[in-house]
Amino acid sequence: MERKLLMNAENDFTKIDQSKKVDQLYLELMQWNSALRFMGDEIHFLEHLLNSYAFEPKTPNLFERLLDYQERVKKAKTEESVVATHIRKHKNDLGGMLECTDDACDLTYFQKHAKLKAEWTACLEDFQNLKSEIFNYAGAILKRKKPDL
Fold it and tell me: Helix, strand, coil proportions of the chain in percent (round to 5)?
């Protein structure tokens, strides 16, 4: 009888432990998803900025730079969508982690999670660099357009 109670206690601990692991990964996925939604809003803003009249034709290399920035923003938008899809898929797959009964199975989920984290991080870092470039360029143009007082 004691052995049966001990085995049940071990199984309950494992289930609780697995549930905590899943909750931890899920919370991290939700944070990543939130950052990507914000990135989507920023992309929308940049698209409007790059298509606005803030950039005058007399600005040197304007057309080429604008095309480059627009293309890179479009690429960032696609990448954001791809990463968001991967996050959704991984989130849906996490339920299978509750079925894991050994560390090898857990390891597979943690490896997928780490790979997705690297993909998410690279996506955000690339976008932050692009955004900084665009803002620096736009800021220089807007300063030149400032009316003389």
Answer: 85, 0, 15
Instruction: Return the sign of the alpha-carbon dihedral for residues 103, 34, 36, 131.
Output: negative
Checking phi first, is residue 61 left (phi over 0); if not, alpha (psi -120 to 50) or beta? left
Q: Which residues contact 32 (CB under 8 A, 6 or more apart)?
A: 87, 116, 117, 120
pLDDT of residue 58: 63
Confidence of residue 57 (pLDDT cuts 50, 70, 90): low
Q: Give the C-alpha separation, 147 to 149, whole Å.
A: 6
User: What's at 93, amino acid-wise?
Assistant: D
Per-residue pLDDT at 86:
97
Residue 26 burial by Cβ neighbours in a 10 Å radius (0-12, 13-18, 19+): middle
**C-alpha of 78 from chain center:** 12
